[in-house]
Design brief:
Number of domains: 2
Largest sheet: 2 strands, antiparallel
Helix content: over 70%
Order of helices and strands: HHHEEHHHHHHHH
Low-confidence stretches: 1-6
CATH class of the largest domain: Mainly Alpha
Number of strands: 2
CATH architecture of the largest domain: Up-down Bundle
Length: 243
């Protein structure tokens, strides 16, 4: 594209780069074209491109890796690299202790801040969770429901903490023990009723009731997990005595 000097100012470059990021027309890995390529593609001077990228980096819209290039999004902080080891070193009791202290508060805030459209989506997710016929599908929709509640709390820091906890759902061992607990107690109808109670309280704008409904739901899950793991220990001890 021919260079248009009248468009060579940094504000114009910033506008065009914002449009590029919004369109999603970047590499699969989020990598942006080089400054030279952007200059040629947009018909903007490289100095203006460079300054605009500096603004976007300060805003957290892009980040740069020395010798590699510029990428869309926030700079990775290395947290994801440690998350796997955290999950591997955490048992379900620790996870449930944290959930019981965070998620009831999230439900309370959601009762105050959720939009009508959010609540409609919650009811839809409750239905999809109940209708799921396999463990993977159930975890998918159940996780989506709980995350929507967390999202509707309107607190970014709380949501970040929730996402760390929710990462455990992707662990195969966690899904297995959850499914065993559901099968052993036939808790699916109870889980459905509890999910409905949570969303009904949020829809009624009743923070206290929403928090208590979430607490009861998580306590039921915790009790089921304790029961199934206790049976596992008993079976292991019996096998040792027989051998």
């Amino acid at each position: 594209m021919p260079m248009d000097e009248s468009r060579g100012n940094s504000n114009y470059a910033l506008e065009k780069l914002r449009e590029l990021l919004h369109s999603g027309e970047v590499g699969v890995d989020g990598k942006l074209p080089t400054e030279r390529m952007l200059s040629e593609r947009l018909g903007i001077g490289r100095r203006a491109i460079r300054r605009a990228l500096e603004v976007l980096e300060a805003e957290g819209r892009v980040w740069r890796r020395q010798g590699s290039g510029t990428y869309a999004g926030l700079r990775p902080d290395g947290w994801s690299e440690h998350l796997g080891s955290i999950v591997a070193g955490t048992d379900f009791m620790e996870i449930m202790e944290v959930r019981l202290r965070i998620e009831p508060q999230l439900a309370q805030l959601a009762a105050l801040r959720a939009k009508a459209s959010d609540i409609e989506r919650m009811y839809d997710l409750v239905g999809k969770t109940h209708q799921s016929t396999d463990a993977d599908g159930h975890e998918l929709w159940d996780g989506a429901l709980h995350r929507l509640v967390a999202q509707c709390a309107g607190n970014a820091f709380f949501l970040a903490l929730f996402d760390v906890i929710n990462r455990v759902r992707q662990d195969a061992a966690w899904q297995t023990i959850r499914e065993r607990a559901r099968n052993a107690t036939r808790s699916k109808p109870l889980s459905h009723r509890q999910h409905m109670a949570i969303v009904n309280a949020i829809a009624a704008r009743d923070p206290a009731k929403a928090g208590e409904a979430m607490r009861k739901h998580l306590l039921t899950l915790q009790e089921s997990l304790i029961r199934i793991t206790s049976l596992d220990r008993q079976e292991t001890e019996t096998e040792r005595e027989l051998t």
